[in-house]
Amino acid sequence: MKTIILFCGLLLVLGCKRESSAPPISAATNQTYAVRGVVQAIPPDHRHATIKHEKIPGYMEAMTMDFSVRDTNALARLAPGDEITFTLVVTADDDWIENVQLVGKSGVTGPPGWHVAEPELAAGDLLPDAEFTSELGQEIHFSDFRGRAVAFTFFFTSCPLPEYCPRMNKNFFEARKILLADSNAPANWQLLSISFDSAVDQPLVLASYAGIYRGLNPAHWLFAVASTNTLAALAPKLDLNVWRENGGLSHNLRTVVLDAGGKIFKQFDGNDWTPAQLAEAIRAAGK
Amino acid sequence: MPAAPDTRTATAQRKDEKFFLLIVIALALAAGVGSWFAAAALSRRDQFHGLAPDKERMLGDFSLTNEIGRTATRADFDGKILVVSFLFTSCSLTCPEVSKRMAEIQRLIANDAGVQLLSLTVDPRTDTPPVLAKWGARFGADPNRWHFLTGKKAALHGLIAQSFLAQDHGDPFNSMPGNFTGTERIAVVDKHGRVRIYFDGLRNETPAAVVAEIGKLRGEK
Prior knowledge:
- The complex is a heterodimer.
- Chain A is elongated and about 65 Å long.
- Chain A has helices at residues 2-20, 165-181, 203-214, 228-238, 275-286; strands at 31-41, 48-53, 63-68, 82-90, 95-105, 131-134, 139-141, 149-155, 189-195, 221-225, 242-243, 250-251, 254-258, 264-269.
- Chain A folds into two domains: 31-105, CATH 2.40.50.320; 131-286, Glutaredoxin (3-Layer(aba) Sandwich).
- Helix content of chain A is 25%, strand content 29%.
- Chain A is of the alpha+beta class.
- In chain A, the strands form three sheets. A seven-stranded mixed sheet of chain A has the order 7-6-10-9-8-13-14, with helices on one face.
- Chain B folds into two domains: 1-47; 63-218, Glutaredoxin.
- In chain B, β1 (63-65) and β2 (71-73) form a beta hairpin.
- The termini of chain B are far apart.
């Protein structure tokens, strides 16, 4: 009851605020749009399709993008180049297409008008293997750790912002402490801190930086560096963004937990997650 | 001693010469300083003419989500003059500087209800509404005047590519996410959705230049 009163109060406050606010922002509601487009690609799982669509008045300009379907049969008889009409359903937190109809074959799958971002991976997807150089100067791969849950994050040693790289490694330190202290936790897990600054973060630099966070106990935690090629292949899969701007390095934060088979178990975006959450995910992924 | 008057004349002459020289130097200095000022003023004006769009660019249709999680569509901003910037909150050098200029513009147009500030993220998976709200608070964003928009990456990148910035598909790590170039710019969009001009969001003079441009656009039908 208290919650309901609180909620009503909140509505009132929001209502007042809205009246006085200058730009009217439409409330989130379910909306449907009739769309026409040409199929560009359909992945084998038939869960989504890349469609070059015409302008969706009131919603989006003409462009090429990925749409998901709820009914995988909806895409069963379609192929790249097919002209289709469909209904785009948009809810507050999801969107999908339905009522897909084949209306013709244009045969045109030409290059889209703009660069379509490579689709990133989701939980359950196998992460393609990648090669790194470890703090010991050895070549290592994600696949070297099969059979273990692997949590990895990205950093660079000269990263100055406390809430960025240092926070990631501090969280790894705390998560490791939780797992090491838990006698019921499985032993098949590995932490990997990966630098994307191959120009500076050579093995010796990594090893001494690792000591700051790891102390004298290297158990379950390795530091490594990714080459530019490794990074270029890996970054789009994880929606990892690295920008070498004016001699500095700007990057977003991606922390990923792989299961024992190398599939993505869970992803932590940004820095708003706790060591306990990471430890919990590692425990679950190792099972 | 006949030499005395000569000496006196010579001294007087030298004094005259000295005086003349001083005047010449003073004049030259005045002219030099004056023209330097004039040149500086001219070049300053040139620099703040801003940059015209590379082609005709119109604000495209969009349906995105703002920093408090509400849907924001193009129709919400119809008839407004828009000041638009680009960011991702993990960006440590360029984006905070540009947001500082946006905050200054917000302050300068505080009484102009016909103007709306928008910042579009290029990294929407990281920049969720709460993350953008936090960024906005850091720069004193007024929730009535300055919105931060996030949403589907394809929709945001498509909108930016179509309406605002060119892309460069060279080195993937040499530009902001989405491979956009000119992400430090602040764009001014007129009441009809035409992108009119860009200013360098890293320059201190930009807020005043944007406000001057808004003054011009406000007078248009």
